[in-house]
Amino acid sequence: MTTPTKYSVPRQPLGLAVLPVLALVGLLYVNVQVFASSDNQIPLVFATAFAAAVAVWFGGCTWEQLEKGIVQSIGTALQASLILLVVGMLIAAWVQAGVVPQLIVYGLELITPGAFLVTACLVCCVVSLATGSSWTTAGTVGVALIGVGGALGLDLAMVAGAVVSGSYFGDKMSPLSDTTNLAPAMAGATLVEHVRHMVYTVTPALAISLALYAFLGGSAHGGDAALDRVAAVIATLESHFTLTPWLLAPPLAVLGLIAARAPALPALLGGTLLAVVIGLATQPAGFTLAALASYVGGLYGGFSIDLLSAVPVGAEYDVQRAAAETVQSLLDGRGGMKSMLGTIALIFCAMSFGGVMERSGMLEAIAKGLLRVVRGTGSLVAATIVSCLGVNVLAADQYMAIVVPGRMFRRAFLERRLHVKNLSRALEDSGTVTSALIPWNTCGAQMTIVLGVATGLYWKYAFLNLLCPIVSIVYGFTGITMTRITDAEARAQLGEDEPPPKS
Predict the structure, then answer these.
(1) Residue 304 exposure: Cα atoms within 13 Å on the Cβ side
(2) How far is it, in rounded angstroms, from Cα 83 to Cα 89?
(3) Cβ-contact 108, 236 below 8 angstroms
(4) Distance (Å, rounded) from C-alpha 482 to C-alpha 205?
């Protein structure tokens, strides 16, 4: 983490400072609701241009100052961007080598009718950890689980809630997730310390969620035909990949390196290379030049597979074809450096907006307005959680719910001598997981589309998504797991010569 350069931040009135934020919210609303687009890079570019115009015309800033702010802001996200590129390579290698298929099979084998809600949540936890994507998990395994739950006669709102909870567990905790990389980049923490610190909030949230699902689920009977569809998915994976416990070596190696506090980039790259070697040794293509070339191509362009062309058309093949469609949706086009370029572009655009807001003093004006109600650590964490939720509601975008509060509250956490990993955890405990609870948010809309259950019906059963913000706020007020830093560490990260004010 780099030490920020000292510069004079002009003081701006709150009324002027909120104008770019309102413009951003409006542009994102039009993009999502009117144009039905989830690509928010262009609205961010125009919002940045508007913020710069306001800062120059009314805020007493020069373009040179703002440009330096943009460059410095993007610089803070470069490490996360590099990690995302390696994550893209890792996902492609893990899919082609059979690591992800092996983990999915282990997850699907957990399904038991007698405790379906619990196992559905756990299956989605396993798959989302393996893929790093809540959308992919819900849109593939989640859809299958909805079908099984319907055949078992369960309330589909409960099933959808369990799917969403498990899907966002991995979205929040997996080093392969873009939000898991984005949150520490905004706060100034490292990926490793961020993931380790989130364990304290997600563990009780998941334990309580599973207990509630066990209570609600009870015992279910029947549904053999639906369970046959799950068995067909497992059979499809086993027919196209050689599955062996050796495939667990890459994820175990990555987890071991992270637990040993190894830097994220070497750990992820090591897991990528190990998967390629094991894949060449175990998969049907063998250790050939053509297979190696396929891995190299996939590391950039992503993994590609065509299962449907091999399945005959006819009613007797419906189950087999449905399984092939599920597996292809889950694996085809996954990973590769190329798949991360859109997310990196979004990060750069968001950081450009944040850089203009920060260097012009408008971000500080907004933060001071919000911090007027903050009296201690608990209220600071609560203000962060509520701000993330508010951005999810107003901007309808999960990434902005991490970026904007992350830039606003970083100084406040440091001034109270709180480690920035406390901030990055709060960002994920709210910004990431609450996005799926809002019907007009891109995440809530996506869950409704793929699961076929309205957000207004499943949100009250998405227990992990509801509990993570609550646990985080409780920790803030009680001081549990709230790591502190020294005055010298705070001053170094703030770029100040004098001690910050004490809480």
Answers:
(1) 6
(2) 10
(3) no
(4) 17
Burial class (CB in 10 A: 0-12, 13-18, 19+), 405: buried
**181 touches 85 (CB < 8 A):** no
User: pLDDT by residue (tens digit) across 309-356?
Assistant: 777 777 666 777 888 887 887 788 878 899 888 878 877 887 788 889
Residue position matching structure tokens 């609600």: 216
Task: Decide if 431 contacts 172 (C-beta within 8 A).
Answer: no
- Determine contact, residues 66/56, Cβ cutoff 8 Å: yes
Residue 79's closest CA among 172, 168, 173, 194?
Answer: 194
SS3 assignment, position 452: coil
* Location of structure tokens 């849109």: 139
340 CA to centre of own chain: 13
What angle in degrees, to the nearest 10, is found between the helix axes of 41-57 and 341-360?
Answer: 20
Mean pLDDT rounded to a whole number for the chain? 84
Please answer whether residues 236 and 324 qualify as being in contact, where contact means their C-beta atoms are separated by less than 8 angstroms.
Answer: yes
**pLDDT for position 45:** 93
What six digits make up the tokens of 84? 């995302």
Helices vs strands, H then E, count in the chain: 25, 0
CA distance 38 to 430: 20
AA identity, residue 458: Y
- For residues 298 and 336, is the Cβ–Cβ distance under 8 A? yes
DSSP states of 282-308 as a string?
A: HSTT-S-HHHHHHHHHHHHH------G
Which residue type does 90 have? L
What distance in Å separates the CA atoms of residue 181 and residue 189, rounded to the nearest whole number? 10
Tokens standing for 58? 């009314």
Decide if pLDDT at 212 tops 70.
yes
CA distances (Å), 421 to each of 90, 264, 266, 308, in order? 25, 15, 21, 45
Beta-bridge partners for 484: 418
Q: Judge contact between 24 and 395, C-beta under 8 A.
A: yes
Residue 62 per-residue DSSP state: -
* Phi, psi of 464, deg, nearest 5: -65, -40
Using alpha carbons only, what angle is made at residue 137 by residues 171 and 43, rounded to the nearest 5 degrees?
Answer: 60
Residues in the chain: 503
Judge residue 196's burial from the number of C-beta atoms within 10 Å of its C-beta, 0-12 exposed, 13-18 middle, 19 or more buried: middle
d(CA 450, CA 438): 15
Nearest by Cα to 168 from 406, 438, 349, 452: 438
Q: Cα–Cα distances in Å, from 133 out to 126, 141, 160, 404, 430?
A: 11, 12, 16, 22, 17
pLDDT digits (tens, 9 = 90+) for 384-420: 999 899 888 776 678 878 988 888 888 889 989 999 9
- With a CB cutoff of 8 Å and minimum separation 6, the contacts of 201 are 425, 429, 468, 471, 472, 475, 481
* Helices 362-371 + 341-360 axis angle, to 10: 80
Q: Which amino acid is at 60?
A: G
